[in-house]
């Protein structure tokens, strides 16, 4: 029966990557350099998968190697991504950025002409980035209520994670990596060590959230300084994929019930987006919001400052005084 279930899944007809010693040599050097740069393992893993696809294409289709390809060969590769692998424009853009880094690391110049030509002809700059909508408090409460009413064994933990994400504006990985030694349960502050920008920062939560968190953590399997405050039922790490599924399930349920508009694009990162917009709405200086959220660039924070949610409120405020 299980075999039949697996057969029902439609698999994509993509050629498998044929690994060679030379390919592995390129990949190994690239991965080592990126690891030394401090890039997160998950990012390196994704980049390596894409790099293998590129190297396989030029080896098998063009019978060339990374140091012998020419300008038109890159055009053939991106045409292959578009027509045969049917990848989105945004994913093609990731390949473009990957190859820029790869050829820079390898100190090869044969990508330079294609790169400059692509920038000049705006081949990749016009790709649309699909932004998500910001979370608001009413929608958050609907989500939390749905989780609490569910039958899942981890519903209390999952709801607690989502509530702390909302309070702190943290990335999901930052919350899942919190350990007891990072938490000041008297002040309600949390030191984030494993951050995207590699810079430690401190975030806070409300007293109400703190009280719930204190009660919750008393029931953890492990409670040592190095143990995570959010644990699986066996004391292990909570996976990002699990939290994304829990969140997505609640969003779909609320949309099916007509409680959330079907065109709202809400993902778990919308909690961070919503916190940024909320802080700016309450008059918090933009440079303070930047530091609190751990944005590497002020431009990222400015995106929230000019978000659709703030523009909508601005138009409503203007309408009232007309």
TrEMBL record:
Pfam families attached to this UniProt entry: Phage_int_SAM_4, Phage_integrase
Domain of life: Archaea
Keyword annotations from UniProtKB, A to Z: DNA integration, DNA recombination, DNA-binding
Signal peptide boundaries: none
GO BP annotations, alphabetical order: DNA integration; DNA recombination
Keyword DNA-binding: yes
SUPFAM superfamilies (UniProt xref): DNA breaking-rejoining enzymes
Keyword DNA-binding assigned: yes
An example Gene Ontology molecular-function term: DNA binding
Record protein name field: Integrase/recombinase XerD
Residues covered by the Tyr recombinase domain: 130-317
Domain Core-binding (CB), residue spans: 21-107
CDD domains on file: DNA_BRE_C
Annotated InterPro entries: CB, DNA_brk_join_enz, Integrase-like_cat_sf, Integrase_catalytic, Integrase_recombinase_N, Integrase_SAM-like_N, Tyrosine_recombinase_XerCD
């Amino acid at each position: 029966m299980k075999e039949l279930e697996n057969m029902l899944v439609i698999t994509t007809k993509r050629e498998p990557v044929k690994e060679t010693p030379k390919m592995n040599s390129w990949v190994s050097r690239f991965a080592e350099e990126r690891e030394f740069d401090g890039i997160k393992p998950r990012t390196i893993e994704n980049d390596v998968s894409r790099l293998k696809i590129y190297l396989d294409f030029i080896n098998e289709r063009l019978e060339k190697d990374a140091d012998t390809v020419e300008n038109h060969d890159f055009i053939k590769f991106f045409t292959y991504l578009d027509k045969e692998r049917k990848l989105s424009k945004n994913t093609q853009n990731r390949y473009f950025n990957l190859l820029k880094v790869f050829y820079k690391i390898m100190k090869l110049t044969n990508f330079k002409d294609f790169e400059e030509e692509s920038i000049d002809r705006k081949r990749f700059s016009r790709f649309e980035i699909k932004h998500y909508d910001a979370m608001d408090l009413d929608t958050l409460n609907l989500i939390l209520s749905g989780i609490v009413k569910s039958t899942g064994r981890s519903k209390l933990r999952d709801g607690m994670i989502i509530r702390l994400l909302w309070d702190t504006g943290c990335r999901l990985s930052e919350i899942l990596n919190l350990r007891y030694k990072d938490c000041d349960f008297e002040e309600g502050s949390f030191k984030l060590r494993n951050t995207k920008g590699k810079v430690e920062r401190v975030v806070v939560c409300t007293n109400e959230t703190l009280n719930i968190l204190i009660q919750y953590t008393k029931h953890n399997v492990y409670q040592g300084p190095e143990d995570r405050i959010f644990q699986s039922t066996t004391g292990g790490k909570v996976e990002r994929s699990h939290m994304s599924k829990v969140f997505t399930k609640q969003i779909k349920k609320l949309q099916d019930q007509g409680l959330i508009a079907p065109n709202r694009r809400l993902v778990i990162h919308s909690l961070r987006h919503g916190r940024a917009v909320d802080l700016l709405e309450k008059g918090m200086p933009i440079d303070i919001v930047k530091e609190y959220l751990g944005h590497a660039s002020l431009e990222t924070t400015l995106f929230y400052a000019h978000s659709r949610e703030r523009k909508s409120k601005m138009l409503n405020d203007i309408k009232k005084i007309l």
